[in-house]
Amino acid sequence: MNKHPNYLLNQINGPKDVKQFTISQLKQIAEEIRTLIVERTAAIGGHTAPNLGITEVAVAFHYVFNSPTDKIIWDVSHQSYAHKCLTGRVKGFIDPDHYADVGGFTDPNESEHDFFAVGHTSTSVSLAVGMAQARDLQKQSGNIVAVLGDGSASGGLAFEGLNNAGRMRSNLIVIFNDNQMSIDENQGGLYQGLKELRETNGQSANNIFKFMGFDYRYVADGNDLDSLINVFNEIKDIDHPIVIHINTLKGKGYKFAEQNKFKFHWSSPFDIETGQSINNNFSDDTYDQAVIDVLSEEIENDQPIMAINAAIPGTFGLKKLENKYPHNYLDVGIAEQHSLTMATGMAKNGAKPVVFHNSTFLQRAYDQLSHDIALNDLPVVILIKNGTISQSSWTHQGDFDIPYITSLPNIEYLAPTNEEELQNMLRWALRQNNHPIAIREPMHNVEHGKSQSEFNDINYRIEKSGEKVAILALGDFYQLGEQLVQEINNVLHFNPTLINPISASNLDENALDSLLLNHQLIITLEDGSLSGGFGEKIDRYFSDKDVKVLNYGAKKEFNNNIPVSDLYRKYHLTPKQIVDDIKKQNI
Amino acid sequence: MNKHPNYLLNQINGPKDVKQFTISQLKQIAEEIRTLIVERTAAIGGHTAPNLGITEVAVAFHYVFNSPTDKIIWDVSHQSYAHKCLTGRVKGFIDPDHYADVGGFTDPNESEHDFFAVGHTSTSVSLAVGMAQARDLQKQSGNIVAVLGDGSASGGLAFEGLNNAGRMRSNLIVIFNDNQMSIDENQGGLYQGLKELRETNGQSANNIFKFMGFDYRYVADGNDLDSLINVFNEIKDIDHPIVIHINTLKGKGYKFAEQNKFKFHWSSPFDIETGQSINNNFSDDTYDQAVIDVLSEEIENDQPIMAINAAIPGTFGLKKLENKYPHNYLDVGIAEQHSLTMATGMAKNGAKPVVFHNSTFLQRAYDQLSHDIALNDLPVVILIKNGTISQSSWTHQGDFDIPYITSLPNIEYLAPTNEEELQNMLRWALRQNNHPIAIREPMHNVEHGKSQSEFNDINYRIEKSGEKVAILALGDFYQLGEQLVQEINNVLHFNPTLINPISASNLDENALDSLLLNHQLIITLEDGSLSGGFGEKIDRYFSDKDVKVLNYGAKKEFNNNIPVSDLYRKYHLTPKQIVDDIKKQNI
User: Fold this and answer.
1) Residue A160's closest CA among B313, B364, B210, B249?
2) Which residue, B400, B338, B391, is CA-closest to B363?
3) Least packed by Cβ within 10 Å: which of A426, A450, B474, B581?
């Protein structure tokens, strides 16, 4: 039900309607949007603070420009809520029954005013350059506007885009949203220069944007609607590239978000009155402490550990480590490529880098995985989270890591099945000097296993010896493997073999050959995309041998916020479905 | 035999020996090195002009600093010849019989003064930051020096590295080698700012390096040994990050290289007296003209084509297209990520981007392939060269593209087998609006096929219908498939089936199922790495069916300048070896 039937926003079905209001009414609309941002993110989670900070930009843009002839491209698009409210989608913000109808990122399937599905940073300027070049090539008109945050500006792609934008000879507008924050604090020398620009009201002669060929305007209060409308009117239809550098307040209007920008960058559901998180399905039952405990032990043992992340310490609970061992912690900002190449340099010079990445963001550094880490074969450790089939937005889909890592030489990709194994593998990885080791952190409920103090080899572990069917249950699908054993016992009345393969990249040929003696069917289970994955490596090994193989994992496709249970059913990732498949094999 | 037994260089067995000479002798040594660079690259090819331009930097570095305690990291390392001459490897430059002993890039297996195997651009600053952080963490000392060219500075990783270097509080020295060239001309707004710095003798207040937190020195003549030695002495052991911006002449000392920096960036063997290329094994029998012909046709038909490349127009012969259709050509500089994200924007706005990439460099934009092109499922066309098992340096190994492209949703990866098929596929790709299409240009001798004017579907083509064995011969291994048919005829006395699979990413299930009727063995041939590749997809399809499969391609490993014939033998990529393997299958 519409929570605010009296809001002016109810009169806005698209950008044209925005132009009917007075400036004073538009200011009220901005405040209405703020309320909706807080209400929606309090209820279902979301990017509270980034959206609060940019509300006036969206209002001013749709007041001055004519979307979709004039096009705005939101970097990351995690700050596009106000834009969505003004482009026909206010129902997804004003009516809790329809929150789920509208996603957290821009989506061309939702609206003609959204041009791209985007969730990774630093792409907006390059996308805008492409749209502008296409406009010019086809002799069309219209403004192309890219929004880029100061945090995203540390990503190399943003720089590549700015460098190519700066040489254009036609319309291109970059709104540089400087809120003095990345996800956490900004990291890098760049931010000194930006500070000087702010402190001189944009007058400093040392100006990276002008250096790169842009015209430039500075807006001291980027949350002041009048200022924004004035500058947009002034530069609309400009015939060359320009940066509008605006100083905004991340979290503006909601005091808890203003005070704790890091927590409210992306927030799980919270109580509006107190800003406190609400107990909910967002489990905090993770392996974070187990990982930090191992790093702390090794630091105490005088190992030169460096725990590296790219602007997402919260994902790994790394603030605890930073507080205790500040010299052993490094946030490089949004700069995934640098994180790995730098780690290569560290490992070469005797340190022990441990790089923490989300599966979906690590792919931003694929060449660095290959050309720097794998080729140089140095003992960099990479800890990967969210490598899993999940309900995520398709912009953050994390099930491609096994394919993209295991196709590279030299990198061992370990897949622990429980907390103790994760710790033992991490210790082993940190104490060896032979190869890069990636470790795929299990993503389901925290499981426990044998507390063996030593992990010495990556051979497969035959956990249950049986007959007919052998199950290779990788990483956090090991528990699914256990359930499958049970289901086979119950339904098919025999004991299959259960194997923990330890590594997604290793073929333990002795173990595989031994299975040929009394198994007719091999089953592989992996929590990731099958195409190029672990199961296919097993298929290749057995392709000329007398045994059949069934592979279970995700289909090669993008899935946008689909419940995991639906995906599991679709991919036959339930014990019952797999047993039905086994029956068809007539073994 | 040593061509110059009287050279002072013969007295240099390592950096310590460099310090024994007078400045005047060092200048002579620099000239000796120049002669060797020209002689070696004239004989066996190589990076003539980059090495000529940086000779004095290497001499001054080893005179002032103490390698390997002080460490120099060469970006790309294609300009490390002088460094190699001064660190015990002069034999590889002065004695033609030993040219092959020393590679064209830095290599830790060659010398303790080389820290990394490097061949891709823009990594040096990040590697240096890592080494410096490791030094500080372990409370060690020594200077860390990164060399970065102005051309490489357009790559986003260089910016990420500079941004993270600029905030350091300890020694880090960046030698910014500004020779006003990338591989071809520099591209981007950045180069306007650098020009202003040069024209003001480094005094301009607008200084991107200072903006990012660096101290700064300018050297107007970076080929003047005295100036370099002075500035190096001045800043040695500095306690904060500094950029030494040096203005050098690419190709210095060899007039043809000075006059044609593009041609001599990397040159095949040439006549020293005339600068003309020598007829040799470097074949110019390519598909370049065939591709340009199709693009020209489509441009003439008013298709809004944009031919995009990232600083390597020579690799694709694109200068011809640029000359004829300058509006339909775009070099983005060394900025592979931008090239793809920009292309996504172009396709969304109605243009027809065709992005030209080397297999080894396209991997620098893996996230852009995934998150921008594949997720948004827009009709970007990508033309890929050097996706092949080759004798390349392991830094440029191009056999991973099938794994990294075919594991992504939505992208179709076509693999033409001859010139006419390549043209037909390219026309089809440009005229469809459904999906991103990548095309893998065949890399062997130019082959010809049926000049069918239409290419309408991606189903497998059964070229020869036979029995027992079916050969899926992908792309430029189609001819190997034909040879294999012949060998099976001759040796095993039956007619196998030969299939052109058309695409590395498509499973034509009808075609595959039809093979089950009268074939016991499927053979896949692909000119790339097997792990995650085409053959494994076939393995998975047949893994629960009554047929065996043998996959032929490269092992997952790095190979450094190994002759292709050796690799083929190792990987059983000859008809005779495959027939021997078939015999063992007892079909």
Assistant:
1) B364
2) B400
3) A450
